[in-house]
Amino acid sequence: MNALSQAGAAVDISRLSKTYKTREEDDVVALGNIDVRFEPGSFVAVVGPSGCGKSTLLSLLAGLTGATTGTIAIDGETISKPHPKIGVVFQSDLLLYWRTVIENILLPIEIKRLDVAKYRSRAEELLVQVGLEGFGNKYPSELSGGMRQRVAICRALIQEPGLMLMDEPFGALDALTREQMIMDLQAMWLRLGNTVLFITHGIDEAVFLADRVLVMSPRPGRVDLDLKIDIPRPRQWGRTHEDKAYQGYVRQIRDIFEAKGVLVAH
Ligand SMILES: Nc1ncnc2c1ncn2[C@@H]1O[C@H](COP(=O)(O)OP(=O)(O)OP(=O)(O)O)[C@@H](O)[C@H]1O
Ligand SMILES: [Mg+2]
Q1: Does the pLDDT value for residue 184 go beyond 80?
Q2: Least buried of 10, 16, 42, 252, by fewest C-beta within 10 Å?
Q3: Where are the alpha helices (DSSP H) in the chain?
Q4: Ligand 1 pocket test: which of 31, 52, 199, 262 has the largest number of ligand atoms within 8 Å of its C-beta?
Q5: Any ligand 1 atom below 6 A from CB of 21
């Protein structure tokens, strides 16, 4: 087994909903009733229109906000606050500019008052895995956007989370860097074997990366379609796009968005 491989967590989401109370007293029902299980080691993508509750779902899983109804269990354990088995990557890298790359990756270890020296070699190994060998002593300002996002991924992986949550992690990248990051993420996940929840607006990256795509309805978000993606791995970005099965999955998702008025033809 690879030294860095990590067991994927099972996630059980049961009758989950979230309503935000607002000052104007018109409550916002962000998330409807969600019931779903993620198998250990699976790659699940969530696509849905802006405002349908994707980030809300991620915040609930990350334990950053409380549910209005329902429960979330990670490997059978109900969570209500940030859990060490969960790593999070956001759209912007949120690196601290005054800390070096290695110091940024080790931040969660410091916060939890764990032995930083023990985790240093793992941080170095993660940098190698994401193609940033030798960049440990650089500062975020010396890196490109794609490189910074790779560092953010290392920071999420430092505690060997069984579940990695990613909220539109490649949304701010240029097209070529995005394509490379998608390929690299697939390779990394195939090596690590953890469970990934990948939130995106991009139907193409969802179908390309995932074992399963959950298509959410406009607010309040519910799962409209739970689509199993049966394409062999490793998948090649260009070649997979020519695959008839891939094109069929993309069509199915687009059909739903068109039917719901999320995508309108002119
Ligand atoms: N803290 C909050 N207080 C009140 N309303 C909120 C809060 N956070 C989100 N909302 C509302 O909940 C709904 C869902 O928001 P959320 O950020 O989960 O959507 P999203 O699917 O991630 O959208 P996007 O694709 O644009 O990132 C939106 O209507 C939003 O205005
Ligand atoms: Mg969001």
Answers
A1: yes
A2: 252
A3: 54-61, 101-105, 107-111, 116-129, 145-157, 175-192, 203-209, 237-242, 244-259
A4: 52
A5: no
Query: Which residue matches tokens 């560092």?
Result: 151
Cut 0.90: pTM above it: yes
In a domain, 110, yes or no: yes
Q: Which residue has the tokens 């990394």?
A: 188
Helices 145-157 and 175-192, packing angle to 10 deg:
20
Q: Is residue 11 part of a domain?
A: no
Query: Into how many domains does the chain fold?
Result: 1
**CA-to-CA distance for 134 and 147, rounded, in angstroms?**
12
Higher-scoring residue by pLDDT: 24, 188: 188
Residue 139 forms part of a structural domain: yes
Q: Are 187 and 234 in contact (CB under 8 A)?
A: yes
AA identity, residue 77: E
Tell me the best of 18, 28, 167 to mutate to test the pocket of ligand 1, counting ligand atoms within 8 Å of each CB and taking the most: 28
Q: Rg of the chain over CA atoms, in angstroms?
A: 19
Structure tokens at 183: 């390929």
Q: Do the domain assignments include residue 149?
A: yes
What is the reported pLDDT for 5? 57
Which residue segment(s) compose the domain that 98 sits in?
A: 93-160
The residue whose CA has the least distance to atom 28 of ligand 1 is: 51
Q: For residues 110 and 99, is the Cβ–Cβ distance under 8 A? A: no
> Exposure of 81 by Cβ count < 10 A (0-12 exposed, 13-18 middle, 19+ buried)?
exposed
